[in-house]
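Work through this:
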Amino acid sequence: MNILRACNRLVLSGRDYFYIILGILIYAVGFTVFILPHHVVIGGMSGFGTLVYYFSGERIPVAVAMYCSNLLLLLCALRYLGRSFVVKTVFGFTMLSLVIGAMETYFASRPPLVSDMTMSILMGAMLLGVGIGIYYSHNGTTGGTDIVAAVMERVSSMSVGRTMMIVDMSIVAASFFLPFDGGDMEARIQARTETIIYGWVAIFVYSYIADRFIVADKQTIQFFILSDKWEEIAYRITHETGRGVSTIDTHGYWTGASRVLLLVWCRQYNTAEIFHIVHEVDPNAYITDCDVRGVWGNGFDTLKLKPRK
């Protein structure tokens, strides 16, 4: 039984890393193929790396600037993050830097794959949002504003997408001060305004898409389980998913029999595992599940209320 549980945990961890890598690949394609060739600065460490790239006269690669800044930011926020989060963060931003480093030289030195700037930026932003949503909903992060968002989510009521949007918009606005070959300030404003607007539009698009992914995955599910093998089911759910189980004494009206009803609250990503556990222990068990608007408490969301006046 212990070997089986260890194998289940290994499979779940492997699945997380698979989706983290998939999200990173989608993000890297969206950035290097559709956004970077148009010289548009977006948010996150990829946007910050783009700023460094152009400020240095294209001598410091985006991937190198991303990696160094991610390391510094992670050290500053280390005390707010758990060990597992830190490990996946290092893995995530290392993978992203490697993938972008391998792709940016090719795509940055060639004409954009999609010549229409609007379509290219929108396509890139959608891929960024999908990539962020996939790896973040599987407990992964590529660092940068993801780290800031994760810290803010723990210490405030701000959502991940909103935090990313505020920080990212500031990074895009900083592109106004990039080296400019034109003449006076009016020429700079005319040249930079368009790319800044494109960058802000991209932020709104990928923040919205990422939020949809993350909120859907954090949906709380309530289970009621009725089975004669309730003790084994409760034991496995507690030890294999880490979710608590409450027991409710019930009495059947028709049969007159006393039975135990199990109550379980979990996240959306736990549901398949719980269904498998119940089916393996007792295929004839009764199961009901429903969406719960919210659960606040240990293991779920922290209730944050403003002080009464």
Remarks:
- The CA atoms of residues 122 and 222 lie 37 Å apart.
- The first helix runs from residue 2 to 35.
- The first strand starts at residue 220 and ends at 226.
